[in-house]
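wait is this the right file?? whatever heres the structure
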């Protein structure tokens, strides 16, 4: 609240220079000074001295037009506020409930004008037709409305805070995914860089060998050509000398000389041997491994950037007693010896299977499973619905909430409504399982060669879990990071 000194200072700022009182209906003239309308009107009615042609401002003596008054509404509002502060500053403690106009205690509230009234105000004619109530009676309904508003606002604030918390967690997840993908890009390009350097070295070495072989053939060619030129030059010189001799000397041994020249066979050396030419023509074939590796690199990079690597572990609460899990829950091995595992609703009791510790309700995820069937047996990989049957016989097919393949010694089968044997060039040692929850794809591929194995199409409405099964002594699998 403004102090009396500050209010007095403000009052001094809005005084009329003519009457020295607080401005009433303030008006502004051409020079910018403000006066009460009444004071300035009376000032204009006073006859001006003969030396002055027009009216001048009472303060700065600048001329102004008598009809050029401009009402200053903004200053009028300031004056009104100052007068209110002046009144409030005169009230003592406990006088806040006193009517500022009649100096009577306020008991009533006019709902039409939203004004506080004393007894005199209530009896005034301007509130005669309005709804007037005692203060507490009038405040009751508004308190209820405020209570409802507070409840709604607090509820909305809690919802916003929940959204903030949820979105903050999602942002952290996204940041983690970006960091993972950044590391994947760095790792894959480092691998590619090493491979390209190796391939560059191999190709340059082969080109250097071709260079050396070409230069060697060039030396051999120059040697043969020089030798043949020397022989022909000697014969030419001999014939020229014979031709210059007298007839008697020319005819001496002429036949043997001509026979030696005519029967001289010319060796025509080849600049590039056919074998060397073929090697040069076949050189582009040496770059085919590079082309295949680049294609594999791009496919792998696009796949890993598209799918989020799932860092999963096995859930011992779901594991069949014949499966031996490692301490880190990332390996499993089949054993005919039953483990001492307590029974619970989550555990498989007939199918020798185990689930991952956590499942998925959306997104695109992939994980790699290393399969070891060196000593026989079989391994089943895929995903299952969270409602998959745990007790009794489990039929491995999509109708039962299972989308999986089975790897056995020498063959692979897709476990659809009817098992389908798949023809692959090579038995995979590592299988990549990929889940696209929204699209409904479960895809299997050879994680080493990137060869596609099989894809299931489904419509997921509930959570799904990575699924693993083993059968046969010595069969095992491991989860790759």
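ok assuming it is, sequence goes like this
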């Amino acid at each position: 609240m403004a102090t009396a000194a500050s209010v007095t200072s403000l009052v001094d700022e809005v005084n009329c220079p003519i009457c020295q009182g607080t401005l009433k209906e303030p008006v502004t003239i051409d020079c910018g000074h403000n006066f009460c309308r009444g004071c300035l009107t009376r000032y204009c009615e006073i006859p001006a001295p003969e030396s002055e042609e027009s009216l001048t401002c009472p303060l700065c003596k600048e001329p102004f037009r008598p009809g050029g008054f401009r009402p200053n509404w903004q200053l009028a509002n300031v004056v009104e506020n100052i007068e209110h502060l002046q009144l409030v500053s005169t009230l003592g403690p406990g006088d806040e409930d006193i009517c500022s106009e009649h100096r009577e205690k306020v008991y009533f509230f006019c709902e039409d004008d939203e004004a506080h009234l004393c007894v005199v105000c209530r009896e005034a004619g301007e509130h005669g037709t309005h709804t007037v109530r005692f203060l507490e009676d009038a405040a009751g309904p508004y308190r209820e409305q405020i209570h409802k508003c507070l409840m709604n606002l607090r509820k909305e604030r809690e919802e916003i805070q929940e959204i903030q918390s949820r979105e903050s967690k999602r942002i952290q997840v996204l940041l983690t995914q970006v960091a993972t993908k950044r590391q994947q890009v760095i790792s894959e390009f480092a691998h590619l860089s090493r491979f390209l350097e190796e391939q560059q070295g191999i190709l340059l070495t082969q080109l250097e060998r071709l260079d050396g072989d070409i230069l060697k053939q060039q030396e051999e060619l120059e040697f043969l050509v020089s030798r043949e030129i020397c022989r022909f030059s000697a014969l030419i010189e001999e014939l020229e000398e014979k031709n210059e001799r007298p007839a008697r000397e020319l005819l001496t041994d002429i036949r043997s000389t001509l026979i030696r020249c005519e029967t001289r066979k010319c060796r025509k050396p080849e600049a590039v041997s056919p074998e060397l030419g073929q090697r040069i023509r076949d050189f582009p074939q040496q770059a085919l491994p590079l082309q295949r590796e680049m294609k594999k690199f791009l496919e792998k990079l696009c796949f890993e950037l598209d799918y989020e690597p799932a860092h999963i572990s096995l859930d011992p609460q779901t594991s069949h007693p014949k499966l031996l899990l490692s301490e880190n829950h990332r390996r499993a091995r089949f054993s005919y010896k039953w483990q001492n595992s307590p029974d619970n609703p989550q555990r498989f009791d007939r199918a020798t299977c185990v689930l991952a510790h956590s499942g998925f309700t959306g997104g695109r995820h992939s994980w790699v499973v290393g399969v070891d069937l060196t000593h026989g047996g079989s391994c089943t990989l895929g995903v299952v619905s969270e409602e998959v049957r745990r007790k009794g016989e489990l039929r491995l097919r999509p109708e039962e909430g299972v989308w999986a393949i089975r790897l056995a010694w020498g063959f692979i089968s897709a476990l659809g409504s009817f098992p389908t044997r798949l023809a692959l060039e090579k038995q995979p040692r590592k299988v990549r399982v990929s889940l696209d929850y929204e699209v409904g794809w479960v895809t299997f591929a050879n994680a080493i060669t990137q060869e596609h194995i099989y894809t299931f199409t489904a419509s997921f409405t509930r959570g799904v879990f990575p699924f693993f099964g083993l059968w046969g002594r010595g069969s095992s699998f491991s989860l790759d990071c």
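The chain has a mean pLDDT of 84. so i think its the right one actually
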